[in-house]
Amino acid sequence: MQHLPARLAALLILALGAQAAWAQAPAAAPAPKPAAAAPKGPTTIDAEKIDGISELEVSARGKVELKRDDVNVFSDFLRYNQESGRIEAEGGVRLERGPERYFGPRLRYDPGSGTGVFEQPSFIINRDQTARGGAERLEFLGRNRLLLHRAHYTSCAPGKEGWRIEAGELELDYDAGQGKARDMRLRFLDTTIFALPFASFPLENRRKSGFLTPYYSQSTRRGLELGVPFYWNIAPEYDLTLTPVHMSKLGEQLKSRLRYLDRDYTGQARLEYMAEDREPRPRRSGFSLQHQHRLTPNLNGRLDLNKVSDNLYFVDFASQVGTVSQATLQREGVLNYNRLWRDVQLHLGGRVQRFQTLQDPLAPIVAPYDRLPQISFGAARYGLGGLFDLSVPGEYVRFAHPTRVEGSRLSFNPTVAVPVLAPGYFLTPKVGLRTANYDLSRTAAGQPSRQTVSIPWLSADTGLIFEREARLFGDKLTQTLEPRAYYLWVPYRGQDQIPLFDTALADFNYSSLFSENRFAGGDRFGDTNQVTLALTSRMLNNAGQELFRATIGQRHYSRNERVALNDATPLRSVDSSDIIASLGGRFLRDWSFDGTVRYAARENRTERYGAQLRYSPEIAKVLNASYRFNRDLLRQVDLSGQWPVLPGWYAIGRHNYSFRDNRMLEGLGGLEYNGGCWVFRAAFLRLRAASQTTATTLFFQLELNGLGRVGTDETLSLLKRQVPGYAVTNPGSAALVPPSLRPRLPFEQVF
Length: 751
Fold this sequence. Notes:
This protein is mainly beta. The chain is 5% helix and 60% strand. The protein has four helices and 48 strands. The relative contact order is 0.07.
């Protein structure tokens, strides 16, 4: 044994360690994961005292620090064998290995293979999910695999152990992305909530077959609902979830969801089946399939198939007003072919579409027409001769209905436009010819079975853009002033004998001021001679973001209209339309506003308006208020928000009320508590169904960070849907955690 000065020994180990690492490198080892590659660099040791036998073994004492690539060992005493590369450390040992930290009294470790043993360690692992724990004994089985004996594991910060897993044996395999526990107990708030002889859990966001956490809810329609999902990871591109469900008021149901993904296609299928409910109503079921497919680089297709067994299916089984009030279910298949040929854009498409109509006994509706089939085609050439845009769209549709007039429609609308675009202004004159040919059956007496209509038309769209520098609250901004004029001429052609297959009056709003047709659909083309005048002003910051916007517009007519939707629709006889105006933007940093109004100047009254206001000073702090008014049709207020009320506690709510009907349409009330490493959510939802019945549902969810969720599976999606701007208080990214909760984040002091 010879005694060497510490710094000289460190330099000697630096050189010898590099040679040893080169000599021990395997000749044909498979390439390891880049994030966890075995160390290959030199080894350095620093300590108060180092003893060594040249090229054999080094012993170090007092504030020992060993470094080799991403492996650092700190201890009171350390022995390093240069031939084997093994380390033995004792006394206040700390091992740093990439994103992992281990603390304990005694360590035996081989940095080259990543194997070894740690006695009585505690650890913190900051991989995809940050977690910590401890054990009587820990075995390193490689760079990405650990085996712990008599261990505990949690994502909670020290001193705030809301939950933890205790196990006789715990294996953490980061290559497989899962943990395995034997003789396992899950403890929550110092109480064992369940124990299993064997269990597995995810260590990162990888799919794994097995039972998922059960969910439950309480509702007036279904009673107590309890489901136990089973997830089957069939293949990397396929998975299946089967969920037996018990509903105390309806009975037993089986839910299934199949998902698939490939380079050229993706989709999912859902099936729900109940053999008999307790009314009794036999064989209640629901089916849905959504599929998208790229058949060739130019040919794409999709399927959207939906079907339920009865009219009340969504009333009984849905939990949101948008689905409860759904009256038609679409079933369609679509193919689209698009390609560029000699600077010509070509299109050919086909669609078959049918509907299932769900009738509400108190508010029956007329079933829509099926399209059997619909074929669209067209060609477009832009910039021809550097001047012209040519377009020739066409469509053939066969409309089918069980009781009403049926028929086919072949239509064309070729157009020629001359767009002129320049900084500060634009001008686009356009001419077109709209033609439609009908072949009808089951017509009324006196109604011709064959009809043709041809309507020429022309338009001109022009505008100016002025800019100037401005200041708002001391900030330098750019203000624009954008006047716009749009002229449209369409002559009168009689269309009263043509049935309405897919046509209705288009919604009158700001964008429709510049549309070519006041009708939506292909069965009516409105006659007019009109000019639209509009003005827009914006405030833009230096990045070009819109901070403020104000618009106003109105149509002016030179003749009365003669084409009506049907006999019950009144014709316009005034020389100007209602005024459309809107105002919106972010007036202050935390406030946003958007409002629109439709004002009838002749009657001196407001026909329709809506306003939305949002205040959101930080993540998970949001208040929303909106009001909608449509004369003789609608008066609704919608209030919602998420706000901290006590440390860790958040209140969540929504109130959607109709003044016209004097009733609440939707109501939500809930609380969310963030315990640092776990979150508890509770909410109740009350909604009015299509059949004038009221349903109330109670949701509960307990989420253990890094482990999973227990309770109602759809709680999070419900809160995000009901409260615009809602944010979870335990996101995966620390940057998205609400500022009031950031001091509660675990492990920040370690990394």
